[in-house]
Amino acid sequence: MSWNEASVECQTRGGRLLNIYDEVRKIATSYYVRHMKDSSFLSSAFWIGLHDVNGSNTDGIFKWSDCSAITSSYWSTTPQANGEYCVSASQFDLSWKIRPCTDKLPAVCENRQPCSCKLSFDSANCADLETSVSSTKLGLSEEDCKTQCLLHVRSNEQCWGLSYDPTTSTCILHERLQTKNTCTLPLRYYRKACFSYRADPLSRENTTYTNTDVNPESVCTTGDDPIEPSIDCNYTLLVDITPPPCSCPKCGSEVSGLPEFWGNSTLQEQIDWLVTSLKVDKTNTSIMRRRKYSATDSRMTAASIGYAGAAILILVVSGIVILDMNRLWRDIKQAFKGVHMYILNKK
Question: How far apart are CA 10 and CA 101, in angstroms?
């Protein structure tokens, strides 16, 4: 199907052509594409939502199907507007290639509503908790954990999978997902899929629709903001993010060192307690004590340094005295001789 036909096909299904904004979404897409290749459903490049919004105006302003601008680039070649205004992705590495909008290719759509996404249990793989970027929620059932993953967004990154520990009711939502095949029980791993495959336009409800335009039929302009996805769900999205559970054998929910009233106190009371606890009595500091008296040092190294210093001082003084001993003796004899002559003269 052409790019325009693929765009209408996705819209008919309640979605839009796939948007690969960044590395996170690229990784999530790669899982789906790999599965389609392994199942022999995908053997060629496919249409994605990237297109030149002005078509033959050749200004080279590309946007996604939700009108968001390019923030990460995965071009396989430098795009050149020579009657080519639509973009496909490689089935091997998801790199982008600009091509005529009339080319016949399959397409991958994405759902616009988070609740239209599906979570499938994966028994062969699991999330690598050391390399994945995740948020942890405590005390949730497995079904509530799945709902959280469908709606969860943090710092513009959505949940692409979850790990659930039924023994502790711990829900781990993965925003940046890296998987491995060596898994640790009892964690159960689910992968989120928001994509669907369209091989030809014949399955559309409007089967008479065809489009051979060389320009993409874009709803975007050069200054449009991204189209916000609508959340058509009856769920309530919670935003309480708690730290991951500790792995030490004896730790619990209590933090040592905090007063008993901490859990039932207001934020201002907690701040006042912390300020009071962190105050330092300057009169007990070493710098203030040294102003009153010399601080003692009972370390053996300190005593050794003192003894060595005294010995060096004694040796220096003794050396000076020994070197001047002869002169000192002559001066003493001369002094006694002078005194003796003075006494004789008096007599």
Answer: 16
**13-23: string of b/e by CB count within 10 Å (b at 16+)?**
bebbbbbbbee
Question: What pLDDT, on the 0 to 100 scale, is given for residue 88?
Answer: 93
pTM, 2 dp:
0.49
pLDDT winner (highest mean) among 33-37, 146-150, 336-340: 146-150
97, 90 contact by CB (below 8 A):
yes
In the chain the first and final C-alpha atoms are separated, in Å, by 145
Contacts made by residues 244-249, CB under 8 angstroms, sequence distance 24+: 244/134, 244/136, 244/172, 245/136, 245/138, 245/168, 245/170
pLDDT digits (tens, 9 = 90+) for 32-83: 787 777 777 778 899 999 998 876 555 678 888 888 888 888 888 777 667 7
Residue type, 103: D
Cα-based distances in Å from 112 to 14, 30, 218, 230, 316: 7, 19, 17, 7, 91
Domains, the chain, with CATH or none = 3-112+195-203 (3.10.100.10), 118-193 (3.50.4)
Q: What is the pLDDT of residue 42?
A: 79
Task: Specify whether the CB–CB gap between 60 and 79 falls below 8 A.
Answer: yes
The structure tokens listed for 2 are 């052409």
- Count of alpha carbons within 13 angstroms of residue 53, beta-carbon side: 16
Angle, vertex CA 111, rays to CA 155 and CA 114, nearest 5: 50
